[in-house]
Specification:
Helix 1 packs across helix 9, helix 2 runs parallel beside helix 5 and helix 5 packs antiparallel against helix 6. A hairpin with a 2-residue loop joins strand 9 and strand 10. With 594 residues, this protein is of the alpha/beta class. Helix content is 62%, strand content 10%. It has 2 domains: 318 residues, ABC transporter type 1, transmembrane domain (ABC transporter transmembrane region fold), CATH 1.20.1560; 236 residues, Rossmann fold (3-Layer(aba) Sandwich). The protein contains 18 helices and 10 strands.
């Protein structure tokens, strides 16, 4: 099982988040403008506090009560305006984020499910699940940081530089130079720190994937006494995570150490400069309040930004994993101008089909087979011969490497995938059910079916017998992947689902393999009804189940080794006869024996 380590760059993440946010322009404008207004009030308050303290420095009795009250009213008004800006930001932010989070989650989920079978075969399901949720949640982190930390910091720094320059150009330029130095330092360390964040995100996904892999195979772990082995593997993954996380966090601490030193330097320098210009009569006592207010506000916002940066970089790395999947084209996609499949007869044609797995492992080679509409065909042969691959190419779970697959003279690559799969009923050898009710699982074959139709299909598949014995009957939850049901019960549910779908083409991949002899006998009649009037492909290992098929194709090494009825193939000296002899209890004679 591979785990993709590709992470999309931050700009790719931002493009998707911006596109999602622009769907709500009024909320977005409110969320972005309110922080600016809030910071303007934060800049204005120290300016008037400066005047207030200058009045306090005057001899008692020389300043009227009205002058003090006037400043107090102004400061109160600015404070109320700041309160209003904060509330505006909060409401806009809340409503925007909840809608965007919903849209992002829906987008990621839908696009993920449309990836090909090959894509899912090389991924951990737990890791993919985590990527969807992290992609969605990362937007909240980044947007919160933007409107509550980044915008306020930029506006406050610009405003403070302008006001200090007005009061004293030298102090204003010194403060501006320090701000530029701090910003430049942050940009440089961002480029250095991001790879460390990405390493940590990959390691974190590996931890989740390893847990999911072991938990989903818990029964195998127990039966093979693998707890210690799995713990050892998990320890190795956690060790990789520990090293990546430690590097990332140590880098954060080193950056904070430099930032802290820069803060001490500018604070002492500005304090000394203010004292110098005060002795020259160019500054007043209130200016010390103004300068300290701006410095304290700047330091506070920079500390907030540093605290947020760890979450920001983690968010970019987390979201980047999912964006890489969203930017990855679907391996199997509808072609331009794809049409709706029209099934009239149900004739299936494999025309000189070749298929290579991973482009280097030949599975089928120049396979040509025509299955007339309404014919029931069995595919037999040793494991790995290519039987299941044939059905997967028909369903277009994979695309052919060469040749083409046709249904009623329509290429499966030229029709929409939904219309193709709607026309084919499929019962797998090992059916996997949703952790939903039995009613919902059967209804998945025809999602607009009535309860009566579902129950009728269940009766035909002989599900109703065991369902009626359950306390909640059709409302019974079957557990994750259907683990609360036996293998035979899951198989019957899958057959009921196919009966309900009633598609013109039917594929049975050893559909009775999990059934006992009694259950198999019951379902054989149901399968005969299900197969009536349909084009049927049956993959069979138990040859006794296909004696009634119209035709048998013997597949060996990706080619048709023999083609005929059951009786015709038994009369020949070939692979089918040998397989039948083995399963019928006979043996293969040694060379020279009679």
């Amino acid at each position: 099982m591979e785990s993709s380590k590709i992470i999309a760059p931050p700009q790719a993440v931002l493009r998707r988040y911006m596109r999602a946010s622009l769907r709500y322009p009024f909320l977005l404008v409110g969320a972005l403008l309110a922080p600016i207004g809030l910071q303007l009030t934060a800049l204005a308050t120290p300016w008037y506090m400066r005047h207030f303290f200058n009045l306090l420095a005057e001899p008692v009795g020389t300043v009227s009560r009205g002058e003090f009250l006037h400043l107090i009213y102004i400061i109160a008004g600015i404070s109320l305006l700041g309160w209003a800006m904060r509330r505006w930001r909060g409401w806009s932010q809340v409503y925007l984020e909840v809608h965007v989070l919903q849209n992002l989650g829906q987008e990621a989920f839908a696009y993920l499910l449309d990836h090909s079978a090959h894509f899912f075969s090389s991924q951990f399901s737990g890791t993919l699940t985590r990527r969807v949720t992290k992609y969605k949640d990362a937007f909240e982190t980044l947007f919160d940081t933007l409107v509550m930390t980044a915008i306020p910091l930029v506006v406050f720094l610009l405003g403070a530089c302008i006001v200090l320059f007005i009061r004293n150009p030298v102090l204003g330029l010194v403060f501006a130079a320090w701000c530029l130095l701090a910003i430049l330092f942050q940009i440089l360390v961002t480029q250095w720190r991001q790879p460390l964040r990405e390493m940590r995100a990959v390691a974190d996904s590996a931890v989740v994937g390893t847990i999911a892999d072991s938990v989903s195979n818990q029964n195998t772990v127990t039966l093979f006494s693998g707890t210690t082995h799995e713990s050892g593997r998990f320890h190795e993954v956690l060790e990789t995570w520990r090293k990546a996380t430690l590097k990332s966090w140590v880098a954060d601490e080193n950056i904070w150490n430099v930032q802290g030193f820069l803060m001490i330097a500018v604070n002492i320098g500005m304090l000394y400069g203010a004292y110098h210009f005060w002795t020259l009569g160019q500054l007043q006592v209130g200016d010390f309040v103004l300068i300290q207010s701006y410095l304290i506000g700047t330091f506070d916002q920079i500390m907030n930004m540093n605290r947020e940066l760890r979450r920001v970089y983690d968010a970019f790395a987390d979201a980047g994993e999912m964006v890489a999947i969203l930017d990855k084209p679907h391996g199997i996609a509808d072609g331009t101008g794809a049409k709706i499949l029209q099934v009239t007869k149900g004739t299936i044609c494999f025309n000189d089909v070749s298929f290579y797995f991973h482009n280097d492992r030949p599975i089928l080679q120049n396979l040509s087979v025509v299955i007339p509409g309404g014919q029931k065909v069995a595919l037999v042969g040793p494991s790995g011969a290519g039987k299941s691959t044939i059905t997967k190419l028909l369903l277009r779970l994979y695309d052919v490497t060469g040749g083409e697959v046709l249904i009623d003279e329509q290429s499966v690559r030229g029709v929409t995938q939904n219309s193709l799969r709607n026309a084919i009923g499929f019962v797998p050898q090992e059916p996997v059910l949703f952790h939903r009710t039995l009613l919902e699982n059967i209804r998945y074959g025809k999602r607009d079916a009535t309860d009566a139709e579902v129950i009728d299909a269940a009766k035909k598949a002989h599900c109703d017998e065991f369902i009626q014995n359950l306390p909640k009957k059709y409302e019974t939850l079957v557990g994750e992947r259907g683990v609360r049901l036996s293998g035979g019960e899951r198989q019957r549910v899958a057959i009921a689902r196919a009966i309900l779908k009633n598609a013109p083409i039917l594929v049975l991949d050893e559909a009775t393999s999990s059934l006992d002899s009694e259950s198999e006998a019951l379902i054989q009649d149901s399968l005969k009804v299900l197969m009536e009037g349909k084009t049927v492909i049956v993959i069979a290992h138990r040859l006794s189940t296909i004696t009634s098929m119209d035709r048998v194709l013997v597949i060996e090494s990706g080619k048709v080794e023999a083609d005929g009825t059951h009786a015709e193939l038994l009369a020949r000296d070939g692979l089918y006869q040998r397989l039948w002899s083995i399963q019928a209890g006979g043996f293969i004679p040694e060379e020279g024996e009679e």
